[in-house]
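Z., the sequence and structure:
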Amino acid sequence: MKKGKLYLIPAPLGETNAAHTVPPYVVSILQELNVLIAERAKTARYFIKILCPGKSLDITIHELNEHTPPADVQHFLEAAIRGQDIGLMSEAGAPGVADPGATVVWMAHQQGIEVVPLVGPSAILLALMASGMNGQSFCFHGYLSPKRPDLEKDLKRLENLAIRLDQTQIFIETPYRNGSMIETALRVLTPSTRLCIAADLTLATEWVRTATIQQWRAMELPALHKRPVVFLLYIV
């Protein structure tokens, strides 16, 4: 029996403009899928309702997150093994990138299931594109330490990596800690270091700005509390 495919379906980065950031061909594929893997079923159904208004929400959605037992993940691929196409949808952005979906993708490869990545929004790449920083060499670090002394060390470590490797350093923060992140960065980083703050990408409230630490210290900072932000560091 021919196996089904695993489609990697990018999800909008927010509620506004959702229908305009996912290409039509992705929507047409999503329209035909009745088995999905997603971090949260509620969020997946919400975006399906926006992207495919006429599609029935009476579909199978397997939840994959930090609480999912590894033994359950293999079960998620059974429909594809039986010949049915299935989808992996991120909570926001590209599946498998800053997203737990990589586990499913690896298992799909091991099972001989064709993996099909689809075009859509990725906050990391959009931020890098808009930053004016080195797009030939970059590294995404995910979340840094939430503890102030360790955060200071993390930021200095990334600054040193940017210098040593001539590489853009990319990271994110829990939205309610954005203010603390920026305050710490402005205090501990070198004045000539470039910092990009990319907030609410693809949304109506999108805001992106790159400046040196010295320049940031002299300007009024944006209100970023509870807004999704990507941070980037680079030194010339």
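The two ends are 56 Å apart (CA to CA). The longest strand covers residues 138-143.

Let me know what you think.
H.
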